Amino acid sequence: MQLGFSFDVSRCSGCMACIVACQDEKDLPEFGPSFRQVTRVEKGSYPNVSMAFISIACLHCGDAPCLLVCPTGAIYKRPQDGIVDVDQDVCIGCHSCVLACPFGAPQFPEGSKMHKCDLCAGRIEYGMEPACVRVCPTRALSYGPMEDLARQKAEKASRVILDPLLKVPGQ
User: Which candidate among 21, 28, 92, 97 keeps its CA 20 to 30 Å from the CA of 112?
Assistant: First the structure.
């Protein structure tokens, strides 16, 4: 089983609660690195402007490029849930993972060894949601087995495409 995050851009309000929850859960400094980032994306020009927010953290990739380039094997995938994690005792802080990760997940606070989102593995082991998912007021973030998340996304996409086609004229 491969666990991962799902994000619904249409639901995100940009409140940043996910970042605060991550920093609190992982005891990160208020103005230091965060394992989750929220980016504002603006499109158009006045008066036709739209804005969206994208919340992203480590995606715990199935074929994690950070894992493939780690020269010491410090980055590994947990067999029970597919969470990509790092062994701090083995990491040498070489930054190879930063160059390989297309999502900017690896963090090196104040020159230390690599740290990143671990999907709140400790919380998951006790049957709880990751901290960022738990606090999201709009439920834009979710997590679970990737097969389930993919099926849910496919069902939602099907409804968006099919609903207008199935409407009875005059109703």
Answer: 21
Cα–Cα distance for residue pair 81/127, rounded to 1 Å: 13
- CA dist 33 and 30 (Å) reads 8
The β-bridge relationship of strands 75-77 and 84-86 is antiparallel
Question: Where are the domains positioned within the chain?
Answer: 3-163
- Specify the CATH class of 3-163 in words: alpha beta
pLDDT digits (tens, 9 = 90+) for 39-53: 999 999 889 999 999
- The contacts of residue 110 (CB under 8 Å, 6+ apart) are none
pTM of the complete model: 0.81
How many Å apart are CA 162 and CA 156, to the nearest integer? 10
Find out whether 88 and 72 touch, Cβ atoms under 8 Å: no
